[in-house]
Design a protein that fits this description.
- The chain is of the alpha/beta class.
- The protein folds into two domains: 238 residues, Rossmann fold (3-Layer(aba) Sandwich), CATH 3.40.50.150; 38 residues.
- Helix content is 38%, strand content 21%.
- The protein has ten helices and twelve strands.
- Strands 5-4-3-9-10-12-11 form a seven-stranded mixed β-sheet, sandwiched between helices. Strands 6-8-7 form a three-stranded mixed β-sheet. It has a two-stranded antiparallel sheet with strand order 1-2.
- Helix 1 packs across helix 4.
- It is globular, with a radius of gyration of 20 Å.
């Protein structure tokens, strides 16, 4: 049994994997799969030290062999660890084109907070070929590894600050339902003891207001929030930051038909913002809010 947010994320991850199936198989693909299966069989038959020596070396080579994805601003390289990470990479420009267009509209010298960055596809795109300063937040350890590794693979570590951190209403230690063996997948903060789960991980949670006021992070000019099930708490923890004139726009995934979605919209409007565009997908939508001058 899953929470509604967890089920939504499970369905979303299957869609990311589906992105890989859109192109027909290359004739060499079936041959490569057979060869890999044979390699795995032979590795498992080796003595432990021999297997450890070879498998660790092969794994490192596979991680080092990044995938290049072309964008209008130049290529981006992605570490491939699991089908979901590959799906996120190959669908960078096509999955949510409205988000790409929104990032393209940033003014020079801006600060962009990517909340729920996952493996960093939008953080990387925002930083590539611009002077935008990015702060990327991701609480799941396996996703954070890929986020930081992708920044390193693209030599964008001076443009992107990656923080292993969850955001919410206030300071807390939260438990995530996330498996470190299922990279690039989303997760739920709402799991209950007794419900089945693949894995759990603790994470520190801070509010946006605390990060700006107590930890000295630069006030963002643009914020993207992609954290189903946690968005309301994140916005509630940004009441004072929403009043700052430096904050120009927010781009949120909202389920407007839900009571929680309606509360999110009202909180953002109370901060002096109005919705200017909506890109619907499924039963949710990416909504851009712009400050009213």
């Amino acid at each position: 049994m899953y929470t509604a947010a967890a089920k939504f994320q499970k369905d979303l991850m299957s869609e990311y994997v589906d992105e890989l199936e859109k192109a027909p198989e290359d004739p060499e693909e079936e041959y490569a799969k057979k060869e890999f299966g044979l390699l795995m069989y032979r590795l498992q038959k080796l003595p432990p030290r021999s297997r450890a020596r070879l498998q660790s070396a092969f794994t490192q080579k596979m991680v080092d062999a990044t995938l290049a994805v072309d964008t209008p601003k130049g290529p981006l390289s992605f570490v491939l660890l699991g089908k979901s990470s590959a799906g996120r990479a190959v669908s960078l420009l096509t999955r949510q084109p409205a988000t790409i267009a929104w990032i393209d509209s940033f003014k020079p010298g801006s600060v962009f907070w990517d909340i729920g960055a996952s493996v960093g596809v939008y953080s990387l795109y925002a930083a590539l070929g611009t002077d935008t300063k990015v702060v990327a937040f991701e609480p799941a350890a396996v996703n954070y590894y890929l986020l930081a590794a992708n920044c390193e693979a693209n030599r964008l570590y001076d443009r992107i600050d990656c923080l292993l951190l969850g955001l919410g209403r206030e300071r807390a230690v939260a438990r995530l339902e996330v498996s470190q063996f299922r990279p690039a997948r989303s997760f739920s903060f709402r799991g209950k003891s007794g419900e089945p789960h693949e894995g759990r991980q603790a994470a520190v949670v801070l509010s946006i207001d605390q990060l700006v006021e107590d930890y000295g992070l630069p006030c963002p000019n643009y914020i993207k929030i992609d954290a189903p099930g946690a968005s309301e708490a994140i916005v509630a923890g940004a009441v004072r930051t929403l009043q700052r004139p430096d904050l120009r726009e927010l781009h949120l995934e909202v389920r407007a038909s839900s009571k929680g979605g309606q509360r999110i919209v009202e909180m953002v409007k109370a901060g002096g913002f109005v919705p200017t565009s909506t890109d619907a997908h499924g039963d949710s939508a990416d909504v851009t809010f712009v400050r009213v001058d």
